[in-house]
Amino acid sequence: MRHGPARGFSLFGVSIALFALSIIAVFATPVVQRMIRVHRVSATLADLQQFASVLEKYAHDHGDWPSAATAPSAFPPGLDATLGPTRWTQPTPLGGRYVWLVDTLQRGERVRAAIAIVSTGGNSMTLDKPLAEELLRQAALIRAIGWRLRLGFRNEPVFVLEQ
Amino acid sequence: MSDSKPTFPATPSRRARIVRGITTVILLIVSVLLLARTTVEATRHDPIDAPLLVKPIGDPKENIARQHDVLGTFATGKEAGDRVIIVQADGIVRFQLVGPLANALAFSDTYRMGMMADHACVVTAHTGVIEATDIDHFSFFGDMYQRTK
Fold first, then answer.
1. How far is B60 from chain A (nearest CA, A)?
2. What are the 10-residue block averages of pLDDT along chain B, 149 residues in total?
3. In this complex, is the C-beta atom of A22 within 8 Å of any C-beta atom belonging to chain B?
């Protein structure tokens, strides 16, 4: 029968490894969370800019915005073809769905035309304070959309096309 | 002839084993605490608005009376795009939009009554606090609602 030194990990070794992992987790988690936040916000802003350019072109060609508000993820009237290739019908990177709004009240102000992100039955928006701050911070850095993006009813992001 | 006594690895002294055992336990406890803290921080949901100072109404009679005061339909107006809040006696509050999106964007929440300063408020489970500024008016996310029913 062979006898030799014990193989495998000792409890002491495991505890040192676990401690090292927990230290890494403490410092890495906020960094990873911030990276995810930044990515979600920039993807949302890219979507909104794309939608805005399509809608503004429509308004330029037709002399007015699409006439009626539509259900979440439904194309505004007359924009099926142009918004079809975009992410309009997809869940937004912040959760929830994009919706076209006409003449709505947003925190005491009537907004003539806007794109909002709303929670729907099967897809709720998860906007907490750090994410909202990141959204407004990044929007403020882009001159074309800084003033347009605000938090409206229920703190839902509203991208105002016309006040 | 060489001495062929078997050799064994040196075993740590009793004192060294105790120190190692205590260190192991401390490391494990600290690791678990750090991982728990990291998990709590990672899953925490910070509300966007600062929490309001809402006091629950302890007296059941007062609670019923306050609820009776806020039951009904309140709206920001009648045009498309205006908003409607319907407070029902069964503990449900409904939110609607006037116009073509009335059904598409309608949703419900549960509520309980509370007090903010000297007036009642409708504290919903997920949607926020509706302030009843008086018996006929609500204030909610910067919009003023007037009783219609």
1. 30
2. 60 85 94 96 87 86 90 92 93 91 87 90 91 92 91
3. yes
Reduce the DSSP state of residue B73 to 3 states and report it.
Answer: strand
| Nearest residue in B to A133, CA atom | B48
- Residue B117: left (phi > 0), alpha (psi -120 to 50), or beta? left
Q: Which distant-in-sequence residues (6+ apart) come within 8 Å of A153 by Cβ?
A: A104, A105, A106, A107, B83, B141, B143
B58-91 pLDDT tens trace: 888 888 999 999 999 999 998 888 999 999 999 9
Placement of tokens 């906007």 in the chain: A127
> Tens digits of per-residue pLDDT, B48-63?
888 788 998 888 888 8
CA B18 to chain centre: 46
Is A70 in contact with B23 (Cβ distance < 8 A)?
A: no
C-alpha to C-alpha distance for A60 and A56, rounded to whole angstroms: 6
Instruction: Give the pTM.
Output: 0.82
The answer to whether residues B146 and B75 touch, using CB atoms and an 8 Å cutoff, is yes
